Amino acid sequence: MDLLEITVPHEWVDYNGHMNDAEYARAFSMAVEALMEHVGLDAEGRREHDLTIYTLETHLCYLAEAHEGQTLKVKVLLLDHDPKRQHVLFTLTDADGGEIATSEQMLMAMSLSGGRPTPCPEAVAERIAALPQPAGDDDWPKAVGRRIGIRRKTA
């Protein structure tokens, strides 16, 4: 599901002539905000439900360069969820659907007034549950669950 469409601004391009690594994180942060709006946690929804979403953890993989003026889209896939948490995979693509980057994230519903984790209200939880999900183990994204490390050849 497409959540967000952006055009790479000049300010996001670094001395290498492509989008700076920090701006990939910005694009995915903007996607979290778009996700919040989609599930009913826009400014009004946050006030009404006394709820926001925090990012607890993220694993960002850079797959290709993005350039000034390029149109990019962010898609979301819900990997798992419970009353308070959402495990998602965001994929940044070019206009033709080519993958530019992925961001696996663990999100947490937080009370605005209490500053503590809290379950999502039913209306928000239903919209979260309706997000696109992998069809099964054969459909599980390869970008999920990766770990960082230097792969060594065995003798």
UniProtKB/TrEMBL annotation:
Protein name as it appears in the record: Thioesterase family protein
Pfam family, one: 4HBT_2
Cross-referenced Gene3D superfamilies: Hotdog Thioesterase
